[in-house]
Amino acid sequence: MKKHIWLFLFAFLPAVIIVTIIFFGWELQRKPGDGKPGEIAFTIERGETLKQISRSLADEGVISSPWFFEVLVRLSHKQNKLQAGDYELPRGLSLLQLIEALGNAQANQVQITFLEGDSIRSLADQLAKAGIVASSTFIDAAGRPTVDYGKLPLSEPRPADYANDFSYLEDKPGHYGYEGYLFPDTYRFSKTATSGQIIRKMLKNFDSKLSAAMRQEIARQRKTVWEVVIMASLLEKEVRTATDMKLVSDLFWRRLDRGQALQSDATLSYVLNDTVAAHSAEDLESDSPFNSYRFKGLPPTPIGNPGLAALVAAIYPEPNDYNFFLNDPKTGATIFAETFEQHKQNKRQYLY
Q1: What is the pLDDT of residues 24-44, one digit of tens each?
Q2: pTM of the shown model
Q3: Which one, of 323, 301, 350, 298, lies nearest residue 247 by Cα?
Q4: Distances (CA, A) of 174 to 13, 28, 94, 169, 170
Q5: Taking the C-alpha atoms of 144, 196, 55 and 58 in order, what is their torsion angle to the nearest 10 degrees?
């Protein structure tokens, strides 16, 4: 029996070694997409493991063997040097060149911090200032604020549909843009990133923040993600702290349940593109559907891009007996009242 094993090894081991050498040599020299025009867009997210990166590279057709890529990275002692960021990878890179390129993200990256509540207009201005993409180009791709594309001719440019890529977008009306879903955070974008790549990266970030438990709770309350995002965008603009957001969330949801107007100056500011805390009587007569003094219910769309605290507050309101609130212009503190008389007194004390 042992003799047969040795004969087998002597007969087939050289063949295995030769095949392995050929495979390793071919993989080292293989150049994905060589001769094809353009570059390969690829993103490494913060916190991704080597295995996750290799799988993503394989899914994008950049490499053929995730296992071999991982082995080569480890042999090169580069496993801790692959940098998060967006890449425009030249076609025709060998594996060794690819590993080197993925360790040099910052040379072609711009870091931008989008704040909670920033609107598409603000995001577009920041991207243009960074020299990545023109403001108008990004706004066309993300969706023009307050615009109902269902009322425009089909010849008008409109945002791409990402609903098939992100399940949380399934209940978002397709005739509105992506205001509300472009998650505020610190990002690193390639200097040559397109509007579509930027939007997809921000939508993917939103996807990671909206946990399974949060989605289940939204469904349990028989609400939609769209409604929650709109509410969260109002909370982001109306109050500062996470605690106050939860209190105002309960107050606003109760107003909606009673069929009462929300009376939020933030919704008017969105359509008027201002930062006024208390609008004039003339402004309050605006016939825009974003005028929540005149029209009941939620505004047609989110009025900015809320952060995680506002999303949590919209989903998990803190029950209370308050019916009115205002913000102290000196401190920003939220002043609550149960009755209209108390509210009028607070107005006299803090606003006049």
Answers
A1: 554 545 555 554 445 677 888
A2: 0.76
A3: 323
A4: 60, 45, 42, 9, 9
A5: 150
